[in-house]
Amino acid sequence: MIDLKFAPDPALQKVRIGALVLTTIDWNRAEQVVPPALREQICAAARDPAPFDRQQRIRIIRDMLRNGKYKPAGRAKPSPEYLLQSALEQDFPSVNPLVDAVNLASLESLYPMSIFDLEKAGAKLLLRRGRTGESYVFNPSGQTIDLEDLLCVCSLKENEADGRPIVNPVRDSMATKLFPGASHAVVVVYAPHGPEGRDLEAVLARMATWYACAVDTIEQAVFEPDATS
After folding, report:
1. Domain 3-223 belongs in CATH node 3.50.40.10
2. Pairing relation of β-strands 185-192 and 113-117?
3. pTM (2 decimals)?
4. 20 to 30 A from 167, CA-CA: which of 66, 121, 152, 195?
């Protein structure tokens, strides 16, 4: 299991982090994680606004992430909003089966999510806001994202005090992205504290059923801030 700590920051009191640790990935079975029928079912549901108040969830997620200089809008909007737009345009992305499962679960729940290679990142992690001047490359063409005040999960390799940011609710770092052939992965779900995030555990459990066919073991956990932070 991973060890994820919250930085002592009052802004983090409004966040809960859900995690799935996927151990020993069998990429030969990965195509079974999200069969075409499930993909189409979730994308079709996204085009039907009736069952789920999406605008309310979008407002709640934006409020959860709004801190300091970071404004969750425009090019910096949370990743589920990009996914929803893609689904509405019938142009939903396909990366690899494990990443696609995260994108579909994020589309379905509208919770921002990340997935990263556990061996690249290490198991010791810190949730904090990005510092002034921090950034990382998020795609193969070398584009970077400004991380100041953006919620970030950081790798604490080599006993670093603050670590290096690897994923966030907008875009994930190229340094720890999950590619076919990786052995272990971590899925992170960013959810609001309180009743607005009450379905976090259910979202994690649903995703675990998808991944079960392609991994040896799945560990599920929810991390919360220290009430004294």
Report:
1. yes
2. antiparallel
3. 0.95
4. 195
Contact, 186 vs 118, CB < 8 A?
Answer: yes
Distance CA 102, CA 117 (A): 14
Nearest to 78 by CA among 10, 158, 168: 168
Q: What does the domain layout of the chain look like in residue ranges?
A: 3-223
The Cα angle at residue 122 between residues 11 and 142, in degrees rounded to 5: 75
Is the Cβ–Cβ distance between 208 and 220 less than 8 Å?
yes
Structure tokens at 147: 């991380």
**Phi-psi domain of 158 (left: phi exceeds 0; alpha: psi -120 through 50; beta: other):** left
Q: Please, which contacts does 129-132 make with residues 24 or more away whose CB atoms are closer than 8 Å?
A: 129/7, 129/9, 129/11, 129/12, 129/67, 129/68, 129/70, 130/70, 130/165, 130/168, 131/162
Cα separation, 212 vs 113, whole angstroms: 18
- From first to last of its 229 residues, the chain has per-residue pLDDT tens of 899 999 999 999 999 999 999 999 999 999 999 999 999 999 999 988 765 688 899 999 999 999 999 999 998 999 999 999 999 999 999 999 999 999 999 999 999 999 999 999 999 999 999 999 999 999 999 999 999 999 999 999 876 778 999 999 999 999 999 999 999 999 999 999 999 999 999 999 999 999 999 999 999 999 999 865 4
Q: In what order do the strands lie in the sheet with 151-155?
A: 3-6, 124-129, 151-155, 164-167
